[in-house]
Write a structure and sequence with these properties.
Blueprint: H1 12-23, H2 33-49, H3 59-68, H4 72-77, H5 96-105, H6 109-135, H7 137-148, H8 151-156, H9 163-183, H10 186-203, H11 211-221, H12 226-253, H13 270-277, H14 316-319, H15 323-336, H16 345-366, H17 379-406, H18 424-430, H19 444-454, H20 459-475, H21 485-500, H22 508-532, E1 540-541, E2 544-545, H23 552-556, H24 572-584, E3 592-595, H25 596-606, E4 611-614, H26 626-634, E5 640-644, H27 651-659, E6 661-663, E7 676-680
Parallel strand pairs: 3-4, 3-5
Antiparallel strand pairs: 1-2, 5-7, 6-7
């Protein structure tokens, strides 16, 4: 396995330049590396951007992205509407690139989705660099391939959901930590803290899950005295905390009148938004913990939890294709390096990515529920472990046969001329050379150890067989890509048999072909699931992207994909309603007040206007109050209200029904208004 040698506390300065050179592709990189990496990045770009004009625009976040692109107040605070009356129920950091893209290119669906594509490709490229610096070019290429064709990664990078940004920033943080451990420099550790803090802006507390793993790896492996390492960790943690909390603190000190009301909170407190609504309430029976608004079926998913959540019929085909290989690599990668110096970086890599995987799996298993796309954050860890593990197993495999090929047979002549004074006639007469004299017979304990080492070459074909067999297990419940299963089986047989039956006369080309066939066998079935995400029928719901015939969206529409509405693409009902409201608007600040985001989302995606969203995403957030709504109507800042039967009744909606006049749908060109009802409050001013 091509790995980075352990950096000792002494001589760290001399190793910095060499380590920095290793972090980029060196001039003496294998000839196949750059073309192979370019091909992987090209595949990733195609998979993530194909049909981007019909990307899975999240209804809620898509509305916010268009609003944020048209108002600096809405941009910074994550306003759901252009007037910034109420925020989204997340921190806005992940949507800043999307809003900038829409501001630059216009209100197009592809413009909102473009940053996700870029972030996805960057993650593949960055993971390649990081794994290469840790485990060499072969491992890096495998890691990039695995990440590229992971189905949930493909589905997520074609949507507008914060987890793409979270994953990119955490991978960047892992690379900075690796560099800090390798070079004994403080700046990379500070940079790691910055990346984690920025990841917090994307997905809040989930970004902190890697911190215990990062801290443990640095304290265990980094050069220097224990106290020095601990003090540096405290400094890096302080940076991560400061960058994480900068938006919260700004929102906290900003007067409530100068910013949107924070959705998901009962007291308009940013700490309640982060640590309550998006924190404690997801792991406890108290859905109102720490000032949170109680979650609803629309805001809280259930299921996909417990110890087996990563391998169930819904989540398993999204993420778990290389899970057995990753676990095997993490265990053997650490075990194989037993007895090495504390600063051994090869072992540190297995600890880092293995800890990343274990921490997320543990937290997901104890939460109240998870969307399948949440698991995209562990895809880099699985990919890195798969690449590093196969590189380790391949190095042990080659070491076995290289040793056998180098060992001379009895009677062989030495490969070099004997030294002066050497009795040449001795080996001619006896048929052996003392320089090749075999070692003494080992003791029983040593013999057992040598036998175990000798069997290590079998791990490579066994790992390939295990991974290919596991792919059949994951696909079996749906048999979704059953036509690919024979291909995977044949490739696996060619690879495993070719590697297992290698002999002294086997050419290197045959060995490489067998290895390539084995690796292809592990990739072909997950790639089939990944490509299915390009078809809207198998891409999941816009609010819960996933690949294949699983999930609620496919079960409800097994033969026809639901129509997606992007930016600036109103339906006939929405267009008629917007035309009516715009025509009858007479200077009011708000185009209308809508009950919950469910009623406001299609209008906000179609047109960037101030819309008062009553109750936020769930419809239960206590903003505005009935008194505040009445004051806006009296001050002629609001005239119309849109209510829906899909959300629960609140004091505000009760006020609308008792003070405003219902407008028949025929007034704006429709026969029926479905679950929506439009009210005119002008007569009650």
């Amino acid at each position: 396995m091509t790995a980075i040698p352990a950096v000792q506390p002494t001589g760290a300065r001399r190793g910095r330049k060499a380590a920095n050179r290793r972090f980029s592709l060196p001039e003496d990189a294998p000839r196949w590396e750059r073309p192979a990496l370019a091909a992987v990045l090209a595949v990733a770009t195609v998979l993530y951007s194909w049909g981007i004009g019909q990307a899975a625009l999240h209804p809620f976040y898509g509305a916010a992205i268009r609003s944020m692109a048209g108002s600096w107040r809405a941009f910074f605070f994550g306003g759901l509407d252009a007037g910034g009356s109420i925020s989204i129920d997340k921190l806005p950091g992940a949507f800043w690139p999307d809003a900038v893209s829409v501001w630059l290119f216009g209100p197009h669906t592809w413009a909102a989705a473009l940053p996700q594509v870029v972030e996805g490709v960057l993650t593949v490229w960055l993971l390649h660099r990081i794994v290469r610096a840790w485990a060499g070019p072969f491992a890096a290429l495998i890691a990039a391939l695995v990440l590229t064709v992971t189905p949930v990664t493909v589905a997520l990078n074609r949507a507008t959901i914060p987890d793409t940004t979270l994953t990119l920033l955490l991978v960047a943080a892992a690379g900075a930590l690796q560099k800090a451990v390798r070079t004994e420099r403080l700046l990379p550790l500070i940079t790691c803290g910055v990346w984690v803090g920025l990841a917090f802006q994307a997905k809040m507390l989930q970004a902190w899950l890697v911190l215990p793993v990062f801290a443990a790896v640095y304290q265990l492996v980094a050069p220097g005295a224990p106290l020095k390492r601990a003090l540096r960790l405290l400094l890096g943690g302080a940076v991560a905390l400061a960058v994480s909390c900068f938006w919260i603190l700004i929102a906290w000190v900003t007067p409530a009148a100068n910013r949107p009301y924070l959705d998901g909170t009962s007291d308009n407190n940013p700490f309640a938004l982060v640590f309550g609504y998006n924190g404690l309430s997801r792991f406890s029976s108290d859905s109102t913990a720490f000032g949170a608004v109680a979650g609803t079926a629309a805001s809280r998913t259930t299921g996909n939890t417990g110890w087996d959540m990563l391998i169930n019929e819904t989540v398993g085909p999204q993420i778990a294709w290389f899970l057995p290989l990753a676990v095997l690599a993490a265990v053997l990668g650490v075990a194989r390096r037993a007895g090495r110096p504390r600063t051994d970086l090869t072992r540190a890599g297995f600890l880092l990515w293995g800890g990343w995987l274990a921490m997320h799996a543990l937290v997901f298993s104890v939460s109240n529920g998870n969307h399948a796309y949440y698991t995209a954050v562990i895809a880099p860890a699985l990919a890195a472990l798969a690449g590093g593990g196969l590189a380790l197993f391949h190095s042990e495999y080659e070491a076995k046969y290289s040793a056998n090929e180098a060992k001379p047979e009895p009677g062989d002549k030495p490969k070099q001329e004997p030294e002066p004074g050497y009795e040449q006639e001795t080996w001619y007469q006896l048929g052996w050379d003392p320089r090749y004299d075999p070692e003494p017979e080992p003791e029983p304990e040593q013999a057992a150890e040598h036998e175990a080492v000798g069997r290590r070459h079998l791990v490579l074909p066994a790992a390939i067989a295990l991974t290919a067999a596991w792919a059949l297990v994951l696909d079996w419940p749906t048999r979704f890509v059953s036509w690919l299963l024979p291909v995977a089986v044949m490739l696996a047989l060619c690879g495993v048999v070719g590697l297992w039956s290698r002999g002294p006369r086997t050419s290197p080309r045959m060995v490489h072909a067998a290895l390539a066939a084995g690796i292809a066998a592990t990739l072909v079935v997950p790639a089939g699931w990944a490509v299915s995400g390009l078809d809207p029928l198998y891409a999941g719901a816009t609010a819960s992207p996933m690949a294949g015939p699983v999930g609620k969206s496919y079960l409800e529409h097994p033969h026809r994909a639901p129509r997606r509405r992007g930016l600036d693409q109103p339906s006939a009902r929405d267009a008629a309603l917007l035309d009516y409201l715009t025509t009858h608007r007479k200077g009011e600040k708000y185009l209308l007040a809508a009950q919950a985001a469910y009623a406001a989302e299609p209008l906000l995606r179609a047109k960037s206007e101030p819309i008062l969203v009553m109750g936020g995403f769930t419809g239960s957030t206590p903003f505005p109050t009935a008194q505040q709504l009445g004051s806006l109507v009296t001050a002629r800042q609001l005239r119309y209200a849109l209510l829906t039967t899909e959300r629960p009744t609140t004091p505000t909606t009760t006020w609308v029904k008792s003070h405003c006049t219902r407008i028949p749908p025929t007034a704006y060109g429709l026969r029926t208004d479905g679950s929506f009802t439009l009210y005119d409050c002008a007569a009650k001013r």
